[in-house]
């Protein structure tokens, strides 16, 4: 093990992961870097979507956006990005992704200390290598990121997800909800039917609608639907089944607005997805439906959530599209989700003024 030379660290670059949900799971690692280098200037390098996650975050000082399909595309683009980073004279680069590309640019930028996992044939361009053999396959990703930093001599921060929105963003969201007839004191049930990784992770709109209708009736809740631009059809189907008794925000929010919207929810029903991790970071109680992905490593990392899965013999397969009959998801009924959600609602005392 080769510890980081702290005496030479004044400016730090953290190369963020590429998916919003994964980025949320790295927030304890980002906070660990901040806690171990309280006086350093910390910059996050991230793609367009993940940059938005960290645009308001007190653990970092600056965000540089990596335009993969724009000015930083291809070999010339990577050289351009490396030149931009070189001008900032970083002392340490922390690579959270596993890819060769994530380590290549800091190497080209001449950053003297470059730490990351020894994955994807990139050991030769890292100065500090974390052996992947130390990672246990059933350990949550949040803990694996912290284990890597601890290996390099950093004291890990508490394994607690967190995100931040500004007061202006929260006020804007309250105004948007008010325009849909949802008042500040209303109990809001969020429904997230999408999952960017692939259709295998998606439960069914009609079952989301059935669960939302029943729970909203029991709890006196107002229903909102979240989703990205590619998920409007699913959201629209749920809204149709709810006969319009909901507010459909799918495809109508930026990343920052989505964060503020989920933060406002009092309960969340979701697939394994980025919004699931956003909800966990804002401590929003949730029920998550899992099928092809491994709940042991990517579930919502907090104690106010419940997982619904039926454990098909082929799950977790980690496939984007199901090659057979989607049995891991068809086995999950609306009744299963209603039971899990209402049980959590009662256990947390949400009907008695709890959040």
Automatic annotation (TrEMBL):
<dbReference type="Pfam" id="PF01075">
    <property type="entry name" value="Glyco_transf_9"/>
</dbReference>
<keyword id="KW-0808">Transferase</keyword>
<dbReference type="InterPro" id="IPR011910">
    <property type="entry name" value="RfaF"/>
</dbReference>
<dbReference type="InterPro" id="IPR051199">
    <property type="entry name" value="LPS_LOS_Heptosyltrfase"/>
</dbReference>
<dbReference type="GO" id="GO:0005829">
    <property type="term" value="C:cytosol"/>
</dbReference>
<keyword id="KW-0328">Glycosyltransferase</keyword>
<dbReference type="GO" id="GO:0009244">
    <property type="term" value="P:lipopolysaccharide core region biosynthetic process"/>
</dbReference>
<dbReference type="InterPro" id="IPR002201">
    <property type="entry name" value="Glyco_trans_9"/>
</dbReference>
<comment type="similarity">
    <text>Belongs to the glycosyltransferase 9 family.</text>
</comment>
<dbReference type="GO" id="GO:0008713">
    <property type="term" value="F:ADP-heptose-lipopolysaccharide heptosyltransferase activity"/>
</dbReference>
<protein>
    <recommendedName>
        <fullName>lipopolysaccharide heptosyltransferase II</fullName>
        <ecNumber>2.4.99.24</ecNumber>
    </recommendedName>
</protein>
């Amino acid at each position: 093990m080769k510890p980081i030379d702290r005496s030479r660290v004044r400016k730090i670059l953290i190369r963020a992961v590429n998916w919003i949900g994964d980025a949320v799971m790295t927030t304890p690692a980002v906070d660990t870097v901040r806690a171990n280098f309280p006086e350093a200037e910390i910059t996050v390098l991230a793609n367009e979507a993940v940059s938005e996650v960290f645009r308001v975050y007190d653990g970092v000082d600056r965000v540089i956006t990596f335009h993969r399909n724009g000015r930083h595309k291809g070999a010339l683009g990577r050289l351009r990005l490396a030149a931009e980073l070189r001008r900032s004279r970083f002392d340490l680069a922390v690579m959270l992704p596993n890819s060769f590309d994530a380590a290549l640019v800091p190497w080209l930028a001449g950053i003297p200390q470059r730490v990351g996992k020894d994955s994807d044939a990139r050991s030769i361009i890292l100065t500090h290598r974390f052996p992947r053999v130390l990672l246990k396959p059933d350990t949550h990703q949040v803990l694996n990121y912290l284990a890597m930093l601890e290996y390099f001599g950093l004291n890990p921060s508490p394994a607690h997800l967190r995100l931040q929105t500004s007061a202006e963003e929260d006020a804007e969201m309250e105004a948007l909800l008010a325009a849909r007839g949802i008042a500040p004191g209303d109990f809001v049930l969020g429904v997230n039917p999408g999952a960017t990784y692939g259709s295998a992770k998606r439960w069914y709109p009609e079952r989301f609608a059935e669960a939302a209708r029943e729970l909203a009736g029991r709890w006196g809740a107002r229903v909102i639907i979240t989703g990205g631009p590619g998920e409007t059809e699913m959201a629209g189907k749920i809204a149709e089944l709810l006969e319009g008794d909901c507010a459909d925000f799918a495809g109508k929010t930026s990343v920052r607005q989505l964060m503020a919207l989920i933060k406002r929810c009092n309960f969340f029903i979701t697939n394994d997805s980025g919004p699931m991790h956003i909800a966990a970071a804002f401590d929003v109680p949730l029920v998550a439906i899992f099928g092809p992905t491994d709940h042991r490593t990517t579930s919502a990392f907090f104690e106010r959530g419940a997982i619904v899965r039926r454990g098909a013999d082929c799950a977790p397969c980690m496939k984007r599209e199901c090659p057979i009959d989607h049995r891991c998801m068809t086995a999950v009924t609306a009744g299963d989700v209603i039971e899990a959600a209402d049980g959590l609602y009662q256990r947390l005392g949400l009907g008695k003024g709890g959040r």
